[in-house]
Amino acid sequence: RGNRAGIPEIVDTVAGFLRDWRIEVAGLVPVPPFNTGRKSQPVVELARAISERTDIALRDGCVKKVKNTAQLKNVFEFGKRAAILKNAFAAERRLTEGMRLLLFDDLYRSGATAAAVTQALMDEGGAAAVFLLALTRTRSKL
Question: Cα dihedral angle (76, 122, 53, 38), rounded to 10 degrees?
Answer without folding.
Answer: -50
